[in-house]
């Protein structure tokens, strides 16, 4: 489905999982979307092949109905070809209805990895879609197993599909650009410029706290990583998240995270790498970090267990258990 430069957190998650499989005893063929209306297949690593299906993408971060339709048709066709040529033992599905539809019906067990908007109850927009498309639940019932990237998402998925759901966090690679200060004087928030990110609230909160805020929206991934290291605190005011890649990358760069309870804040632990609080409490929490500072090394250590290789190994074990 999504793969850099297309997409946001889901694209990064896909890339990191592929990176994590490079040291494992497994062969992977990844089928992802591409910009142009063309086909591209090439080795990605020692044991990974990458196939890009061009869908004439106009905007790297947002999908139109026609783009989703083109992806669905092409992905289903090429999944069948890959299954016939490579005879995989299992299919890992990442990306909701179109990709689940592409994976089913090929005689190969498939495991669905949820990321957020592909679960009923995650957001009002998702609820409207699932209300008008009940066959999605039937496709999910056909999956061998289900995996969520947060405990909050697992709860929603278990209620929606009445099935056991495992939890495996999104991976994050150790940051190349890191914060090297204990003082907290500059804040940042990152994400697509969409209403659910509530950047206006982030600006208000930081204004009340007396800390300058950088809002980085629709920037390329390398720019995001560089900018994170130039700041001291990450602020998240989203209505809902599956497992925020931006929060994880901020922690990996040594920034404490102050976030509202949005569903994807499980990596944030008070007293260690940030705080989870209400919008009303945020200004005082941020001021507390400004007064006391925060050790970047302690923050970075809190996500060391989420390295791509460790998360990819967990996925592989989970797939093998349910194969």
Can you give a write-up of this model?
The chain is an alpha/beta fold and 323 residues long. The protein has helices spanning 9-21, 65-86, 97-103, 124-132, 135-141, 151-161, 199-209, 221-229, 245-252, 282-292, 296-301, 308-322; strands at 28-34, 39-45, 48-54, 91-94, 110-113, 145-148, 165-167, 187-191, 213-217, 233-236, 257-259, 274-276. The strands form three sheets. A five-stranded parallel beta sheet has the order 9-8-10-11-12, sandwiched between helices. The protein has a four-stranded parallel beta sheet with strand order 4-5-6-7, sandwiched between helices. Helix 1 (9-21) crosses helix 12. The radius of gyration is 20 Å and the shape is globular. It starts with 8 loop residues before the first helix and ends with a helix. The mean pLDDT is 87.
Outline:
This protein has 323 residues and is of the alpha/beta class. The chain has helices spanning 9-21, 65-86, 97-103, 124-132, 135-141, 151-161, 199-209, 221-229, 245-252, 282-292, 296-301, 308-322, and strands at 28-34, 39-45, 48-54, 91-94, 110-113, 145-148, 165-167, 187-191, 213-217, 233-236, 257-259, 274-276.
